[in-house]
Write a structure and sequence with these properties.
CATH class: Alpha Beta
CATH architecture: Alpha-Beta Barrel
CATH topology: TIM Barrel
Helix content: 40-55%
Shape: globular
């Protein structure tokens, strides 16, 4: 499983050098140093995904806003995430994805980038989520499917009886496998982490191709090291919002390095 480490801009140099997948946040593309850092990664052959802002702002940037940001920043990337709508009926995201694909083609962006799509549904509508998943994976332009930290727990909570992120995504992945619903020939990217040890089970299930998270570096910055509890964080995920403009200090460097190493271990890296 490939890992993408999300970090404040002044901490980007602590991303493990041998990781080759990166998820970029759209609203940070206005920062020149941020773009330059990842353009160098792209030039060496790394995979770059540009997110659409739905997690940070509660709704995605429009197709034109994303395209304008990409063009103005001159960022280099492999994939762009189509607009997705957490908590909305599954059809809203599938329709928006198709519209995004059409607009991408109209502006000639399909010659440079491929598309990632993220299924959603209203709360508890796991059958609707599966319908959305199937519709998106059947679009020939969609090359990556995003297993959302928001969308999957929101959909499957009625089946599992909990809103826990890790439990629901493990359950949903196992359900898709058990019922032969896992789409073939498409990349499955798991967006974000609740409990970092979710990666152990996802690696075992064998559906997750990649994951991105701020967990390892951000918890390290806060002085929190992963522990031996079932989730890896005895007190749960710290809810302090990531400060992407945080001034650099090496105060908790040991915790950051420990966390990145443990995440690699749990994802099955040698």
């Amino acid at each position: 499983m490939k890992l993408g480490y999300i970090a404040p801009i002044n901490y980007l140099h602590l991303i493990p050098e041998n990781e080759t997948l990166h998820l970029l946040l759209a609203h940070l593309l206005t920062d020149k140093s941020y773009v330059e850092f990842y353009n160098k990664k792209f030039d060496r052959g790394d995979t770059i995904i540009i997110d659409n802002g739905a997690f940070e702002f509660g709704k995605p940037l429009s197709a034109n806003e994303i395209i304008d940001l990409i063009n103005k920043s001159e960022v280099k990337a492999t994939y762009v995430v189509a607009p997705d709508y957490p908590g909305k009926p599954w059809q809203e995201t599938t329709e928006a994805t198709q519209q995004f694909i059409d607009q991408f083609k109209e502006r000639g962006m399909d010659k440079k980038f491929k598309i990632m799509a993220v299924p959603h549904s209203i709360t508890g509508d796991w059958m609707g989520w599966i319908k959305g998943y199937q519709c998106l994976t059947e679009m020939k332009e969609v090359k990556i499917i995003g297993m959302s930290i928001l969308g999957v727990p929101n959909a499957f909570c009625t089946l599992t009886g909990t809103s826990d992120i890790a439990f629901n995504r493990i359950f949903a992945t196992a359900y898709l496998k058990e019922n032969n619903l896992v789409a073939k020939d498409i990349w499955h990217h798991y967006l974000g982490l609740g409990d970092p040890r979710e990666l152990v089970m996802q690696d075992l299930l064998g559906v997750a191709d990649s994951n991105d998270s701020s967990s390892a570096i951000w918890h390290g910055i806060l002085g929190i090291s992963y522990d031996s509890s079932a989730g890896g964080l005895l007190k749960g995920k710290n809810t302090t919002e990531v400060n992407f403009n945080l001034e650099y200090t090496d105060k908790n460097l040991a915790a950051i390095k420990y966390n990145t190493k443990r995440l690699r271990d749990w994802a099955g890296h040698e």
